[in-house]
Fold this protein.
Amino acid sequence: MNRSRKFSLPKPLAIGGMVLGIALGSYGVAAAASGTSSSSGTTAASTTPSAPAGPPGAPGQQPWGNQRSDETLLTGDTLAQVKAAAVARVGSDATVVRVETDADGAAAYEAHMVKADGTPVTVYVDRSFSVVSVESR
């Protein structure tokens, strides 16, 4: 007499497990995608392809953090004029990391840059493309 039984999983339990797996997988994909997406349709190629390393002790991190949801990357003529004003003030040896609107109200626009010596700076530019202030960290 053979007493071995074949194990079978009840259908409702199997279906529940599949639904849970799909839901968790979808959440993971959505969470990963939302960390790098931009609703403005512009790419980082309009400034500098990769951000330089931050200050010592924080390799690979931008000292300003990531782009905020209430600020928009600049494009076209506005990008070119803000970038030109920022480079003229800080120096042509500085690297432009990101140019965007300024939601804090310091100016209309801000350019995040890194000087040749690694010092991070933010250049605030008004609507007439004049530099309002420069903040070093």
About this structure: The first strand starts at residue 95 and ends at 101. The helical segments are 11-34, 76-90. The first helix runs from residue 11 to 34. The radius of gyration is 24 Å.
